[in-house]
Amino acid sequence: MRTRLLMVVALGLAVPAWCPAQDVPVRPREGEFTCYPNHPGTWKRGVGVDGPGMKGLTPAQLRLFRSKMDSVAAVVRATAVFNPPVGFVANAWQDYCCTPQCKQSGTCGKRPAHGRLWLNLNYFLGVGRGPVTDGELRAEAELYFNDPDRIWNGDAGVVLPDGRKTLRQPEPWGKIGGLTLYHNQERGDLYAFFTSPRSGNRPLWLPVSNEQYLEALLRPREEALANDLKTLPASFHEKLKQGYALMIDPPRAQLRGMSAAERAAPAWVGSGGLPVPANTADARPVVVFNPDYFDMSLPRTDIQLIVLRLEGIPLEGRKPGPQLQYCSDVSNERLWQFVEQMNWQAMARWMN
Q1: Burial per residue of 135-160, b for 16 or more beta-carbon CB atoms within 10 angstroms, e otherwise
Q2: Which of these, 113, 295, 306, lies nearest to 199 by C-alpha position?
Q3: Residue 336, domain member (yes or no)
Q4: Helix and strand counts by DSSP (H, E) for the chain
Q5: 295 with 304: CB under 8 angstroms?
Q6: pTM of the model
Q7: Which range marks the domain in which residue 250 is found?
Q8: pLDDT of 184-235, one tens digit each?
Q9: Residues 161 and 220 occupy one common structural domain
Q10: Which of 10, 45, 54, 63 could potentially form a cystine with 50 if both were Cys, beta carbons 3.0 to 4.6 Å apart?
Q11: Is 270 within the bounds of a domain?
């Protein structure tokens, strides 16, 4: 299956036949409405407010960091898919949001400044006098600056005592235009990682041992049971213990049955949420972000990590036509073109 995916990615480079040069509606094979594969528009951009990831920066530092984000946004804006003759509509939102995890881990103001460039690629339907769209009719891309904590929409469900969130290690999906993309936790969105040229051999991810994982899995469950036993009437205690036993006993028994070597071995987790042998189908290593990845001797305004998130890339490969299947294929194709045409090297020059 993996070989087939890579072949589709490698060979599917032509613009689909259903993409006309003119702004005319096309009826897809599936769906109720016609849609506009090449609706022209303008680049729309908004800028948000400071977030907790900017804590401690002076006004001058904020301006410097924003200027670097502006420079990356300019590289994105210059991508061919957003310019004539295509002129596809894109809404870009630049802000410093999405950093609640730094509060949980206590890193707000301690890591390099956070930021985000959020790109929405809407598709348009032939409704009434058409074309019309709304905020949900889109594919999207996000560029996260120095913010490794916002990249997964699902995880192994465990937070270590120091606040670091575990996740299943990113798994390669394939390439578009030479850029390697990775599956997220639920294999829905795709990601790419751009690391600082100064990072040397510092890895982004560190392994989590079976013991670390199981103890961290058990801790909140046992704490929740103890709290419920304190706050609820004694008449509920037996049923409470029975209910919590379903969540506590299996991982506790697994941990007790492990040898010292097994406890220290890197954890692999499958769909069941408990450690499994590494050769188990669908199992992936459990990792955490390396807290020593960022070089804190550099200014906090330096961009040391950019994470690209893509929502809308067809995981089965590009859809070349000859006929549009769904209206959503319009924005999905434009997202593919963005990844294929974007000057990633020019973007990386703004990293330190």
Answers
A1: eebbbbbbbbbbbbbbbbeebbebbb
A2: 295
A3: yes
A4: 8, 14
A5: yes
A6: 0.86
A7: 210-265
A8: 766 678 999 999 888 878 899 999 999 999 999 999 999 999 999 999 999 9
A9: no
A10: 54
A11: no
